[in-house]
Amino acid sequence: MAARSGEFDLIARYFAPIAGRDPAALSLKDDAAVFSPPSGCEVVVTTDALVADVHFRSIDEPELIAQKVLRVNLSDLAAMGAKAGGVVLTTGYNRDLPEEWIARFAKSFGEDCAHFDVPLLGGDTVGTPGPTFFSLTAFGYVPAGRALRRDAARPGDVLAVTGTLGDAALGLSVLMGKLPDLDEKSAQFLRDRYWVPQPRMAESQSCMAAGGRFAAMDLSDGLAGDSRKICSASNVGMIIHQDAIPLSDAAKAVLEEHPDCWAQILGGGDDYELLITGSSRDISSLGDTVAVIGSVTDQAGQVILQTPNGKMAELAPDGFDHFK
Amino acid sequence: MAARSGEFDLIARYFAPIAGRDPAALSLKDDAAVFSPPSGCEVVVTTDALVADVHFRSIDEPELIAQKVLRVNLSDLAAMGAKAGGVVLTTGYNRDLPEEWIARFAKSFGEDCAHFDVPLLGGDTVGTPGPTFFSLTAFGYVPAGRALRRDAARPGDVLAVTGTLGDAALGLSVLMGKLPDLDEKSAQFLRDRYWVPQPRMAESQSCMAAGGRFAAMDLSDGLAGDSRKICSASNVGMIIHQDAIPLSDAAKAVLEEHPDCWAQILGGGDDYELLITGSSRDISSLGDTVAVIGSVTDQAGQVILQTPNGKMAELAPDGFDHFK
């Protein structure tokens, strides 16, 4: 294989054209980018790293990986109630990765940035003898003092989620060949949910527009574990009604044959739905944006699952297995 | 070896105490941090990734690596004329790295953040089967419209640098055992210059205070290659007077025995000094902050070295070798 282009060539060839769209990026020719938040807004900043075969499958299409890298970070902005402002991307390419892979990654990344109207402001491109990694830092803007936080939950609040839960974890099972009997339409749906997260930017802005007191976070590590993070930050507990958890038709099809997959739905990550708490009035104001799945209690740190048969048990951080 | 603590434990144990110092970090408990630039200022953002045994030696002390990770990014802020505002740090730890290494890294990183008065606002901690990597994104603040840029050089400007050049490249040679005859005091000085960059925050602020038209960048990849980046951005050329390049006593001691080390001084990276152009009046106003090493020409893209014997030759991007 011909020697790979140097770092500067890679940036110039694949990333500068994407970044050139925004004046803040200074065409990626400077040491840094410059931007300003809109008047009255604060800057929200988040960062997430993804390592090949830890956070994504290196055999997956580079187009899908690019979307995931961007979207998991946008999801963090959504969790804070922020509108996306810009991203900087660090890429560490394994030295044996073909340049064509990088070209496809960059093209898809640029298209997804355009889709979410978020400029690439800068970055760094390095080589590594190890697994390919990406580290993305995203900025967003939120009206001053109004960022959605994890510490705003209060006993008596209701607990709600966007979308459907568990699809991504089941999608990974499909990809790993663990659900061979599933119909292809359901399988495709679940794979897509694993591959391409849908950051809940619009739903997040619905919370901001509603103007209530909401606590929020995005479900990246699974409902069972992530719910504890709001509990910890807000010093509260939760009761989750298993029956109320919104499921896709595909997830329902899986559960019909494999009821033990509830463990993945409760404990599996990568859904990137929003978990939101607020007074019943505030949550009601969100309308069909969310589904209510439980309530907030004063039993600090206790996350209880109420099962369809009326039993209640502590929900272990990694899901269902430990208490059924 | 006992199993390493999980990601959340590592963050809680080692990084949350550092980040807890700044309210913007929300104690690292939220999805993102929130901050505001001072009134009238823009946000400058830069990111740099460092991979073990590519950008630093994995056998080096974690305390020194932590300082390097922070400082190479602060240097990019200095190059833009920005004051440091905050950093977010992504760490990808090789899974066999002892937790004690991480603890030492984090302690040193926190101390260096305090030294530069720059808060850790957030980050991500992941494991990797490959080499340890760090990706840091730094924010700074600069008065609106006044960031130092690479495209501001004009023919007739003079060219200046802070500090002394080549020390870091020679320090790496010392570490690799290539300069065994050097006295220990010089060797120690050069090693330190390789290990611990000194981001030129004060010198950068001198430029801002002087208020002239400056182009600036930091010398991370060596004078020969980096000078071309200002030439490219500003569509100019440069003449560099070899005799005028400021050298440390240690570098002079090396050159006495090894005159061929000029190639490293001109082409070697990791100095993190500032390369600045401006009118002779503007550069003069900086006083002893900088040393003048040449001038800016209208010969776009041509970087000429004038040697002590009066000869002039094109300076190759990687240093001296190709034209002597």
Structure description:
By secondary structure, chain A is an alpha+beta fold. Chain A is built from 10 helices and 12 strands. The first copy, chain A, has helices at 7-19, 62-79, 99-115, 167-175, 184-195, 201-210, 223-234, 249-257, 262-267, 280-284, and strands at residues 33-35, 41-51, 83-94, 120-128, 133-143, 158-161, 215-218, 237-241, 274-278, 291-297, 303-306, 312-314. Chain A has a 7-stranded mixed sheet. The longest helix of chain A has 18 residues, at 62-79. The model of chain A has no long low-confidence stretch (mean pLDDT 91).
Topology record:
Two copies of one chain form a homodimer.
Chain A: H1 7-19, E1 33-35, E2 41-51, H2 62-79, E3 83-94, H3 99-115, E4 120-128, E5 133-143, E6 158-161, H4 167-175, H5 184-195, H6 201-210, E7 215-218, H7 223-234, E8 237-241, H8 249-257, H9 262-267, E9 274-278, H10 280-284, E10 291-297, E11 303-306, E12 312-314
Parallel strand pairs in A: 3-4, 8-11
Antiparallel strand pairs in A: 2-5, 3-5, 6-9, 6-10, 7-9, 8-10, 11-12
Helix pairs in contact in A: 1-3, 2-3, 2-6, 4-5, 5-8
